[in-house]
Amino acid sequence: MFDWVNRIRFDESSPLEVQGHENNFGFQRHQPEIMASSHWHGHIEINYLFNCSADYLINGKKISVPEGRMILFWASIPHQMIASDGDGYMVNIYIPLQAFLSWKFPNEFIEQILHGEVLVADSLHPTDQPLTLMWEENLIKKQAPLMFQVIDEIRNRIRRMSLEPFSTFNLSYAERKSGHKSLVSGLHHIQLILRYIADNYDKKITVDDVAQHTGLHPNYAMKIFSQVMKISIKQYINKLRLQHAQALLIDTNNAVLNIALEAGFGSTSRFYDIFQREFAMTPLQFRQNIFNSRTNDAIATN
Q: Looking at the domain assignment, is residue 138 inside a domain?
């Protein structure tokens, strides 16, 4: 979370994102760039088009996005910018899938994204452009409280989008009607697995539960998930739980035991073990670090 990706870079030999960035947030402001080929990566991606328009190929289908729009899509769908017009710039925001799914947006909203749809806000808000500039300034400072604040504001902006009118390009409908398979192998099964985990990660679930719900053999479910997501099902479930726990540690004064149970860990010992292994500190140390950073920032501004 603290190591934001400034730009999604790809191996020259492969259109797939170089492994290692799937769990990092990312932010980039730049001039639109025509891409030589499609690529994909594991993030949920936001594109803001400020005073410019763009044409994309999304899973082989052309879409045109007018200027002054915000679009949201799952970047595991092969995508490519093929044309742009205007003198403005665009902002790309990359959100780890496990963070996005832990934010609990409306089911229909999430379903459309996981089925390969591109969602388009019908209009930008007057605050969108200055807000993205402020996010950029905040992230440059590399201060934990500011980074968490940016993440909260991104989450709230997407929540607002989910509650307001937005448009689609009927890509998921066209996919089902044509019977064409996704260019990402096994994506349909991954969608089912992700949806089930997103709804149940805060409960006691196993790989067998996931496989049974999706109608797959457990070994096949584990294999295809790790191939596409570059992480095991168990690791992915724990990352969703950690995202949930981090938010509770930052935003509430709840006891660690209550946080562990609410996030789905089942016990404080298991929570402490996984948290320390992931962040090299205890949950209480994490909470204290955030508190100290906020206190120091408040002193510096006075």
A: yes
CA distance 118 to 184: 16
- List strand residue ranges (DSSP E) for the chain, in order: 26-30, 44-50, 53-58, 61-65, 69-74, 79-85, 89-95, 119-121, 166-168
Question: Among residues 173, 199, 232, which one ends one of the domains?
Answer: 173
Q: Give me the numbers of helices (H) and strands (E) for the chain, helices first please.
A: 12, 9
Q: Which residues of the chain have pLDDT under 50?
A: 11-20, 173-185
* pLDDT tens for each residue of 189-228: 887 888 888 888 899 999 999 999 888 999 999 998 887 7
Determine the Cα angle at 145 with ends 142 and 150, to 5°. 80
Kindly list the distances between the CA atom of residue 126 and the CA atoms of 55, 71, 72, in Å, as whole numbers in the listed order: 24, 16, 18
Bridging pattern class, strands 61-65 and 166-168: unpaired
**What pLDDT, on the 0 to 100 scale, is given for residue 110?**
86
For residues 250 and 290, give the distance between their C-alpha atoms in angstroms, rounded to a whole number. 7
* Separation between Cα atoms, residue 284 and residue 255, nearest integer Å: 10
pLDDT at 151: 94
Cβ–Cβ under 8 Å, residues 45 and 26? no
Using an 8 Å Cβ cutoff, are 48 and 132 in contact? yes
Read out DSSP for 258-287? Answer: HHHHHTT-SSHHHHHHHHHHHHSS-HHHHH
Please tell me the distance from the alpha carbon of residue 102 to that of residue 223, in angstroms, as a whole number.
Answer: 23
Residue 93 bridge partners (DSSP): 27, 46
Q: Can you tell me the distance from the alpha carbon of 69 to that of 48, in angstroms, rounded to the nearest whole number?
A: 6
Q: Residue 49: how many CB atoms within 10 A of its CB?
A: 23
Number of other residues whose CB lies within 10 A of the CB of residue 109: 18
Give the number of domains in the chain.
Answer: 2
Is residue 160 located within the same domain as residue 193? no
In a domain, 20, yes or no: no
In a domain, residue 145? The reply is: yes
